[in-house]
Amino acid sequence: MNDITLINKRLQEDNLSRYQLAKMTGIAAPDIYNCLNGNRPLYPGWRKKIFDVLGLTEEVEHGTDK
Asked: N or C: which end of the chain has fewer CB within 10 A?
């Protein structure tokens, strides 16, 4: 599962909006929208902030977290 799919899935599971994610991470809402729509790259620093806020880990992304 790619990063964007994983993030969108977690947002849906946690009933969070992209705007709420932006507020929680400090990343501008238009940047969040563009990244999650595939119109802008998900920069490593942003990815780390988003993963930290959502409680995601590298293991989840690679399917080793049960």
From this structure: C
The model's pLDDT over 4-62, given as tens digits with 9 standing for 90+, comes to: 999 999 999 999 999 999 999 999 999 999 999 999 999 999 999 999 999 998 755 55
Contact, 65 vs 57, CB < 8 A? yes
User: Positive or negative, the Cα torsion across 31, 35, 41, 43?
Assistant: positive
Task: Note the pTM of the prediction, 2 decimals.
Answer: 0.84
The number of helices, as runs of H, and strands, as runs of E, in the chain is: 5, 0
